[in-house]
Design brief:
Chain C: Its main location: membrane. The complex is a heterotrimer of chains A (488), B (306) and C (293). Chain A is an alpha/beta fold and 488 residues long. Chain A has 20 helices and 15 strands. In chain A, strand 9 and strand 10 form a beta hairpin. Chain B has 306 residues and is mainly α. Chain B folds into two domains: 49 residues, no CATH class; 241 residues, Orthogonal Bundle (MetI-like fold), CATH 1.10.3720.10. Chain B has 14 helices and two strands; from the N terminus they run H-H-E-E-H-H-H-H-H-H-H-H-H-H-H-H. In chain B, helix 5 crosses helix 8 and helix 13 packs antiparallel against helix 14. The two termini of chain B are 30 Å apart. The chains are: A alpha/beta (488), B mainly alpha (306), C mainly alpha (293). At the B-C interface, helix 1, helix 2, helix 4, helix 5 and helix 6 of B face helix 1, helix 2, helix 3, helix 5 and helix 6 of C.
């Protein structure tokens, strides 16, 4: 009788959703089972085991890893070209990174990249912070989005690159891009890819409903109303899963959310509910209430499906949008869709503000064995003309490197997704060059998680836009205090 | 049982007692894995939970402080409340579906019933990640089958993943994934009943329905109760399905949706390893109490019945 | 033996309600699989804006092209993942079964000191949620230089306390002490006694535990996600999850991953479904064996 029951438990136990317990033991009550004393004993014996393990020195396998500059980041997903050169381990998830790494390794005799993909975004960060907490297991160089850099600085995970020659490449980047990765005089990552924001729109839908391209947010709202009155599709989308997007739009209207420097990491100023931000929040809530924009989460299949089948007239998005949409199957062929790019609508057209959805960078970890060498890789990977060109050709990145950004070839490229519009020159390059940079907090992921909650309440109308920002201000202030920060 | 056994047993027992290490030798390989991959990590996690560390502060010993914080933390408590509600609603549905299916399959031996047995069981062989992804697609109000269905009556399809409906959406996925498995276990238990009992009942004039509910169900009640315990523990530790659905949930699955998701986010997204360990252990405590209450109640009830 | 009487009872009532109920269940449980198959035949546009709706084929039948792309995408890495999954689940499953058989036999047949206590610990220790174990396990692996190797997935998969439980219960009933003692009297060593006398008797339970642990490892997602960073080592669940994350991120770049995810999901479930269908005699036997007691 018990046999099959136990077999069910095997399945439960080995399955991530459900794991099982000693219930059968309690259930049958054949033997007395007092948890307290027994688990105490278990604790003691395991404690002894742990002590043994802790005593085990980390260079057990040192003999085998002499050629590796890195710690335990593991085997390479690429081939090493120059086997005699020292290796630097890199975690990155750019779709064309294998090509870029091969290019890098062929052109470098002094150093070789040993690359692996540790997951996309949050997955990689989870592994990275676990490795930092464990004190071992991190790569030498890690790909990070700019928004998470200060958080990892605070965990003492990143090396200050200003001591390893970061200034050599400073001139390659716009002031805004450089500010995103710096704190005071320190530089903690080298920018690679950026997300200057713009509005892409369906020219065919605009023509059909007689709409002119909005240049201000007021015009955007008016056009949305016009579309709805004429029975057209949604003007756009306000999804709760894009807190970075919403942060950028609030920043556009003057929000200076964080006052924080990694050099003085115990102090932080928080200002999330200024009038400009509230105006933006109320504005979008109004559009949602009137049914002028959809409220789907972005990037999921539903949303992509909507973009592909003409449910949205615009997509307020970043420079990677055309590449992303092509890849997601929202093609311009066949179904009469005609996408175009236009600058982001403004609050004050006299003083246009350029904002950034977020970009990615390479940083050197504190577990890197040879920090100079790792810094070389961070500076030079994805930085040669050839490597950048591949990123552009495959629509993988929007390069922040001025070598590419300032080149005529890049500016004059007709973008197929936009039916040949030279969108880089018309929209994206000016947007990037006008971008002034952003100061991130050291707890961006928590902030984004809370901001998502605020966005949900803005969408479902349980709070007004202004109220939800007031609450957010309070939540974040409390959180910062609880984490031991002095709130300025 | 037999005489030679009685003769043989005495010397052999002495022999075993003289060499107790033989038993340990058989257990040792498993024991090592058990200590290294279960006991040691557990102890370490418990050790972590006794300290607290803010992002901007050093690590300090806080004893039970984290536990006090956890059981007054509204995020943790709301997650606990969710999984309890989920368990209370899910388990009866799940049991009803699998019991009904098992009873029907036990009573029939047609080609259809053999096929049905496999069809119902197939979801068990599908990884939870893949199963949840599939349902995520099927729930889509823009290109899922519901769209076509509701088009017929000129309505737009409901948002199953919205915060009002997500409960039902998850319920459906879990029932789909696990009902077949529970069904097979109940079915196996039913096959184990001596059929002469049915024969006797039939002679006494019992119909198939009476046989099912008066004889079969009571006879497998201890198996049912045990499955319930497993389902209870699994549900309280709910993780994979909401985690996979999260990116498409339009914000209705938050970072504290279930206690396990909360612990996961605390550790891997918010870098609060100490508090994450505390949440995990606190969940363990809640599971322990819930299982204990359930077993206590069912034992009392069953005791009263028999 | 019992089926004869069963057939006669079932024959009396060709129950229509029961059959309707079964058909409804079949539709419900197979519907997502049907969708998966149909979706695998669509191109990216067809997936979202197809002509036939979600549950019927699009005008373009793209299944072969999708499989073709799956074979070539990133040098066929998908099939490497599939191979990894097979390797991990076979090694993990076989290993877990061996350990469980040995330990279960040890618990059942050797009344040594501390046996009941350690068995209780074994059963009582799994109430702590998985999330609590991941960080320390990762740290442990790092210390042993095992992270990002196949052992980081396989070694923890060897842990199957309920396999041990099952084996103990089964061995206690199925392996008579008298037989063991007889063998010992004949001068057989303990290991030989185990291999020649006990093991054959435990075979049905062995098959069940083996199958269940193989499935558990095959379906595992959380552990390999946490301990592997080289995608050449990923099992197929983590690989597909990674594609899903990539597709849903802003760095999709160039290729449509959704069709790959869908067709990859379809292919990934085929081995286990086939295994279950072809081995049903064994696992159903294994499950009901206990019930017959």
């Amino acid at each position: 009788m018990v046999t099959f029951i136990a077999s069910s438990a095997v399945r439960l136990l080995s399955h991530p959703t459900e794991s099982a317990t000693a219930s059968s033991r309690f259930f049958f009550r054949r033997e007395p089972f007092t948890v307290k004393t027994k688990s105490l004993l278990a604790v003691v014996s395991a404690g002894a085991l742990l002590a043994t393990l802790a005593g085990c020195s980390p260079d057990v396998s040192a003999g085998g890893s002499t050629d590796s500059a890195g710690g335990d980041a593991g085997s390479c997903s690429n081939t090493i070209v120059n086997k005699d050169a020292p290796q630097v381990s890199v975690w990155a998830w750019y779709p064309n990174i294998n090509t870029v790494v091969d290019m890098f390794n062929k052109s470098h005799d002094d150093v070789q990249v040993c690359w692996s993909n540790a997951g996309q975004g949050a997955d990689e960060y989870a592994k990275f912070s676990t490795a930092i907490a464990a004190g071992t297991g991190a790569p030498d160089v890690v790909m990070l989005e700019a928004e998470v850099v200060p958080g990892f600085i605070l965990q003492d995970a990143l090396v200050d690159l200003s001591e390893h020659g970061a200034d050599d490449v400073k001139a390659n980047f716009s002031a805004g891009a450089w500010k995103d990765v710096s704190s005071g005089d320190s530089v903690y990552a080298i920018p690679v890819d950026g997300g200057p924001m713009a509005m892409i729109y369906r020219a065919d839908i605009f023509t059909k409903y007689g709409i002119t391209v909005p240049t201000t947010w007021d015009e955007y709202a008016a056009a949305a109303q016009q579309l709805k009155d004429a029975g057209g599709p949604f003007m756009g989308d306000f999804g709760s899963n894009v807190p970075a997007w919403f942060t950028a739009l609030m920043t556009q209207n003057g929000q200076k959310a964080w006052d924080y420097e990694s050099a003085d990491p115990q102090k932080i100023g928080i200002d999330l509910n200024d009038d400009g931000s509230k105006k933006v929040a109320d504005y979008w809530q109004d559009l949602v209430k009137k049914g002028l924009v959809d409220t789907k989460d972005q990037f999921n299949t539903d949303y992509i499906g909507g973009l592909a089948n003409g449910s949205y007239a615009t997509y307020v998005s970043a420079a990677w949008a055309p590449g992303y949409l092509t890849g997601a199957g929202a093609s311009t062929e066949g179904d009469g869709a005609e996408w175009k790019a236009a600058p982001l609508p403004q609050w004050d057209p006299a003083n246009p503000v350029s904002v950034n959805w977020g970009g990615s960078t390479f940083a050197v970890t504190t577990q890197a064995k040879d920090k100079d060498l790792a810094a070389t890789v961070a500076k030079e990977l994805y930085a040669s003309d050839e490597e950048l060109q591949d990123g552009v050709d495959t629509q993988t990145i929007f390069p922040l490197n001025q070598k590419m950004l300032a080149s005529d070839a890049f500016a004059d490229t007709p973008v197929k997704f936009f039916n040949g519009q030279t969108a880089n020159k018309d929209v994206y390059i000016p947007a990037e060059n006008a971008y002034e940079g952003y100061t991130y907090s050291p707890f961006t992921t928590y902030y984004y998680s809370e901001l998502t909650k605020s966005m949900v309440s803005i969408i479902d109308g349980s709070k007004s836009g202004s109220e939800s920002l007031d609450d957010l201000q309070k939540t974040m202030t409390d959180y910062a205090k609880a984490q031991g920060f002095t709130v300025k | 049982m037999t005489n030679p056994a009685a003769v043989l047993r005495a010397p052999s027992r002495r022999r075993n007692l003289r060499r107790p290490w033989i038993g340990w030798l058989f257990i040792a390989p498993f024991g090592v894995i058990f200590l290294v991959f279960l006991v040691a990590p557990l102890v370490y996690a418990f050790y972590l939970s006794l300290f607290s560390k803010g992002l901007a502060t050093g690590t300090i010993f806080s004893g039970a402080g984290n536990y006090v914080k956890a059981f007054t933390d509204p995020e943790f408590l709301s997650g606990i409340w969710f999984v309890i509600r989920f368990a209370v609603i899910l388990i009866p549905i799940q049991m009803a579906v699998s019991l009904a299916a098992a009873l029907v399959l036990d009573a029939l031996t047609t080609r259809l019933s053999r096929f049905a047995r496999l069809a119902i069981f197939v979801p068990y062989a599908i990884p939870a990640v893949v199963g949840t992804l599939m349902w995520g697609f099927l729930y889509s109000p823009t290109f899922g089958p519901l769209t076509d269905l509701f088009k017929v009556v000129n309505q737009s399809a409901p948002e199953i993943l919205s915060s009002g409906n997500i409960f039902g959406g998850l319920l459906n996925i879990v029932v789909w994934q696990w009902a077949g498995y529970y069904m097979i276990i109940i079915y196996a238990a039913l096959r184990g009943i001596d059929p002469s009992i049915y024969e006797a009942a039939r002679i006494d004039g019992a119909g198939p329905r009476q046989i099912a509910f008066r004889i079969k169900v009571p006879m497998i009640s201890s198996a049912m109760a045990l499955i319930l315990v497993f389902a209870l523990i699994g549900t309280l530790q709910f993780f994979t399905e909401p985690q996979v659905l999260r990116p498409i949930s339009n914000g209705s699955i938050t970072s504290s949706f279930t206690p396990n998701i909360y612990a996961f986010d605390l550790a891997f997204r918010f870098s609060q390893f100490n508090y994450a360990s505390t949440i995990s252990f606190s969940l363990g405590i809640v599971v322990f109490i819930a299982v204990y209450i359930f077993l206590f109640a069912s034992r009392k009830r069953r005791g009263g019945l028999s | 033996m019992t089926t004869i009487t069963r057939v006669s009872t079932a024959k009396k009532r060709p129950n229509i309600t029961a059959h309707v109920f079964l058909v409804a269940l079949i539709i419900y449980f197979l519907l997502p699989l049907w969708w998966l198959f149909v979706a695998s035949t669509k191109d990216p546009q067809g997936l979202f804006t197809g002509t036939g709706g979600a549950l019927w084929f699009d005008k373009n039948f793209n299944l072969l092209a999708n499989i073709q792309e799956l074979i070539t995408y990133k040098g066929g890495i998908y099939f490497r993942w599939l191979g990894n999954s097979a390797l991990y689940s076979l090694l993990g499953g076989v290993g877990a079964t061996i350990l469980a058989v040995l330990a279960g036999y040890g618990f059942a047949k050797f009344p040594f000191k501390g046996r009941d206590f350690s068995f209780a610990i074994l059963l009582g220790s799994v109430m702590v949620p998985l999330t609590a174990l991941v960080i320390p396990t990762f740290m442990l692996m790092s210390q042993l230089h095992l992270t990002n190797t196949i052992w980081a997935v396989i070694l923890p998969s060897l842990l199957s306390p309920f396999g041990v439980y099952l084996m103990r219960v089964y061995a206690a009933d199925a392996v008579p002490d008298e037989l063991l003692d007889a063998a010992r009297v004949d001068g057989s060593g303990e290991l030989r006694t185990f291999l020649t006398v006990a093991l054959p008797l435990m075979r049905p339970a062995v098959v069940t535990v083996l199958l269940l642990s193989v499935v558990g490892t095959w379906n595992n997602y959380f552990l390999p996600l946490a301990v592997l960073s080289d995608q050449n080592l990923y099992p197929v669940t983590v690989g597909l999850g990674g594609w899903q994350a990539l597709a849903a991120s802003n760095n999709g770049g160039g290729t449509s991953l959704y069709t790959l995810i869908v067709v990859g999901s379809l292919i990934s479930i085929i081995p286990l479904v086939i295994a279950f269908l072809s081995l049903q005699k064994y696992w159903q036997g294994g499950l009901s064996l206990g019930a017959l007691k």
